[in-house]
Design brief:
Layout lengths: L2 H10 L2 E7 L5 E2 L14 E7 L1 E10 L12 E8 L5 E7 L12 E8 L2 E6 L1
Antiparallel strand pairs: 1-2, 1-3, 4-5, 4-7, 5-6, 7-8
This protein binds zinc ion.
Length: 121
């Protein structure tokens, strides 16, 4: 499986695949040749729970072609618990900012043709 396929399989189980520097422990969301923090080349896969708090979001009311069936939805940036990592994904049923206060607890619940799917916890 490619790294992207692995990411999708983990997302469907509510998990996030990350890449941890074996020297300094810094977590990377995508594969890198060198650690962004210390320059080391050693990495190991670490699977995290895809749970955190909504950091920011954008409501999509006019969707790109082919995505109209999903509107309204939000493009959400989720701050993952216990890490510096932020991931982005999509949350359905968000029509106005009142529907999703910043800081709302949320989690990864799947993957569809938009990308990672996030739902309120
Ligand atoms: Zn490192």
């Amino acid at each position: 499986m490619s790294v992207e396929e692995q990411l999708i399989e983990h997302a469907k189980q509510g998990k996030l695949l990350t890449h941890k520097c074996t020297d300094c422990g810094y977590l990377h969301l995508s594969t890198a040749y060198y650690c962004l923090k210390c320059g080391s080349k050693g990495f190991e896969d670490v699977i995290l729970d895809g749970i955190g708090s909504v950091a920011t979001f954008t409501i999509i009311t006019v969707a790109p072609a082919g995505f109209e069936k999903y509107t309204p939805y939000a493009f959400v940036v989720l701050q993952l618990d216990n890490t510096h990592l932020r991931i982005s994904g999509f949350m359905g049923g968000i029509a106005s900012p009142e529907d999703l206060p910043v800081g709302t607890r949320a989690k990864i619940t799947g993957f569809d043709d938009r990308g990672i799917v996030i739902e309120k916890q």
